[in-house]
Amino acid sequence: MREALDAYFATNPRARGYVLDDQGALRRHMAIFIDGRQLTDPVHLSDAVAAHAEIDIIQALSGG
Question: What distance in Å separates the CA atoms of residue 34 and residue 50, rounded to the nearest whole number?
């Protein structure tokens, strides 16, 4: 996952700070899905991503 995100941020560098924190982990208010399955390693971003996988990066919602 880390390599896929790095490739995306190379084309959209402003998104990095919104998606990742200053330690490079996924921010708490963000969620990533790989082919419909939620990312399992939000700290190290080590989940495997197939070459043609669909990656969704969305803002996680909470509240009442």
Answer: 9
